[in-house]
Amino acid sequence: MDYYEGGWQEIIPNFGKGGLYKGIEEGTHGEVCLIPWEYRILEDNPSGVSIKFMVRTYRTPFYLEKVLTLKTGDPKLYISEKLKNEGYTDINLNWTHHPTFGGAFLDDSIVINVPENRIKYVLKPENVGKYDEITGNNIKWP
Q: Its Gene Ontology molecular function terms (predicted)?
């Protein structure tokens, strides 16, 4: 990872080690982070920018839309997302974001502020006991 500049992976439909689910091979961190997305610029003017990203998965029947917005004078990144199961059966999934920062982006002057929040999760039955460092399903983060 010496030369990894970082990035922002969206992880659907699973995270961690891949496996077989309902006859579908799920790779490590799912497929959304590995396939091309389409995009459309919704707004690009002095008051801010807003871009809509869309992706349809190949192995699973999901369609994901994401809008990222930056407003002039506001240091926040606004994220709005919608995930649709276009299939005919219920599918369990894990959906998470995996931002990483590295390379030329980081130096001693960089500060990343993340507000305190809570994470709620449900482990798949086959993963119970594999993640001993996680206690409970409603944890404080960071």
A: carbohydrate binding; catalytic activity
pTM above 0.85, yes or no: no
The boundaries of the domain holding residue 55 are: 6-111
Domain contains 124:
no
For the stretch 108-124, what's the b/e string if a residue is b when 16 or more beta carbons lie within 10 angstroms of its beta carbon? eeeeeeeeeeeeeeeee
Tens-digit pLDDT string for the chain (142 aa): 456 666 788 888 877 677 777 777 777 777 888 889 999 999 999 999 999 999 999 888 899 999 999 999 998 889 999 999 999 988 878 788 888 777 666 777 877 777 777 666 656 666 665 554 555 566 666 6
Q: Is residue 130 part of a domain?
A: no
